[in-house]
Amino acid sequence: MADSLTAQEKIALIKQNLQEVLKPEIIEDIIVKQNRPLVVYWGTATTGRPHCGYFVPIVKLAHFLRAGCTVKILLADIHGFLDNLKAPIELVNFRAQYYKHVVTSLLRAVRVPIERLEFVLGSTYQLSAEYTMDLFRLSSVVTEHDARKAGAEVVKQVESPLLSGLLYPLMQALDEQHLGVDAQFGGVDQRKIFTLAAEQLPRIGYRERAHLMNPMVPGLAGGKMSASDPDSKIDLLDSADAVRKKLRKAYAPPQETDGNGIVSFVEYVLLPVSALKSDDGQGSFTVERRPGEGDAVTYSDIDQLKADYRADKLTPQLLKSAVTTALVDLLAPIQADFQASPEWQKIEKSAYPPAVEEKKKKKPKDKGSKYPGGGTGGAGTGKDVEVKADGSVEGKGKDEVNLMTKATDALAALDVEQK
């Protein structure tokens, strides 16, 4: 398809549905003047299980590939480890392999050729001497304040932040140089890291790149779709029943389209995927009505769907039912790939082993210090001793707390008259 597109059509496809593009002139110079494919990279930290939110960047990667771009996907295993230990280092390699299977299957599901697609594992170059020296050089020109600010929306924020969270944005900037790309793609939440890269890479002698940003799509619970929140996302391997159950609970207030995760999923996933699959490039989304309520309605324009939803012509129940049907169909080929691949199944078990519930240990009852042998010194003495079951005493203060060994000795010490 890329061969049949003009330079301007390629640029339009690259920018389609993006929220923001930094330095678009770099893209135009490469495609129009240099007349070569744009090299773009997208990085994903190999941490939690990929979910249906991954369709959003996948759609854009599909656009890049159709526009003739060379696309590099960074499986950022080191980043995943640095982000407040989101992924134990022992699991990151398995998870990187799992992500590779997932992304490949997602692109196949939307019928996109992957000849220009390349996977790169972060640890294959981020542990080299050259990369390490560049990291030292970059850290000598970036302040702690700027590094922390750059990662504020991406790196997990905790009360006592780790130094690893400051390395994360510096490494993401350096990846542009070491992957040899012209542009980096990500969500708009990455903007501060992109800005840091644009400002700081030239300071250590590297050229500035373009940056392409997707809008943030709300999750099913109304906020950001997150792999760590099971109610905000649908796993790519969820059964049809699980999909129905989660979508029934999804946040979709009547007549409200802003922040509505269901409407956004139609806008940024279902309609674009339908367009990628169709011969004419036109997407469509069909809503079936209940018997006796009229014919099905097919939308090809998201603005019309939003207008009908705000007017309550399209109810949350009808929309959820239609999205459920479309999503189950979309997930079917991915799940078929998983079932047909013993290798993928084996990697899944290694990457995400089932959690083992620890049995609760019975805590010894606190009897206080008012019983014989209670407290640190027994019998309220305050001495650093321990009274054994046989009556003997152990510890630093045992000589001061002498319980004797015979009853006669104890009575004699107390000067009690024996009768």
Topology of this structure?
Elements: H1 7-15, E1 20-22, H2 24-33, E2 39-45, H3 55-66, E3 70-76, H4 77-82, H5 89-109, E4 117-121, H6 129-139, H7 144-150, H8 164-178, E5 183-187, H9 191-200, E6 210-214, H10 240-248, H11 261-277, E7 285-287, E8 297-299, H12 302-310, H13 316-339, H14 342-351, E9 385-387, E10 393-395, H15 407-413
Parallel strand pairs: 2-3, 2-5, 3-4, 5-6
Antiparallel strand pairs: 1-6, 7-8, 9-10
Helix pairs in contact: 1-2, 3-11, 5-13, 5-14, 6-8, 7-8, 7-9, 8-9, 10-13, 11-13
Description:
By secondary structure, this protein is an alpha/beta fold. It contains 15 helices and 10 strands. It has helices spanning 7-15, 24-33, 55-66, 77-82, 89-109, 129-139, 144-150, 164-178, 191-200, 240-248, 261-277, 302-310, 316-339, 342-351, 407-413, and strands at residues 20-22, 39-45, 70-76, 117-121, 183-187, 210-214, 285-287, 297-299, 385-387, 393-395. The radius of gyration is 31 Å and the shape is globular.
